[in-house]
Amino acid sequence: MLHSSHRIMVAISLIAIGLMPSGLSSSGVIQSALIQSASAQATDNETLKDMLAVQIRSQGYNCGQALEARQDQQLSKPDHGVWVLKCSNATFRISRAPDMAAKVEQLP
What we know:
Helix content: 40-55%
Largest sheet: 4 strands, antiparallel
Shape: globular
Strand content: 15-25%
Order of helices and strands: HHEEEE
Structural class: alpha+beta
């Protein structure tokens, strides 16, 4: 399956070389690819925040409803992701390394 950014590039390439399938407009193909990309990103974020919430709950932390998750780019390293999870009742910084329990810190 092609990543959404690859679908956009394929659509642009088909347009550029004149191989757009009959019955499709170039703007329609690009718009469809962009909508699919936005939808995939929204689904990924929904899955991420819920997965992080389940993980910290399993470690004994109270996360009411998971509202938002974002990666802390400054603290993250290869094989060691750092995320900020905003729950309805608290905000947490979560450090995750492969095959280890998450390090969880409640933020003010």
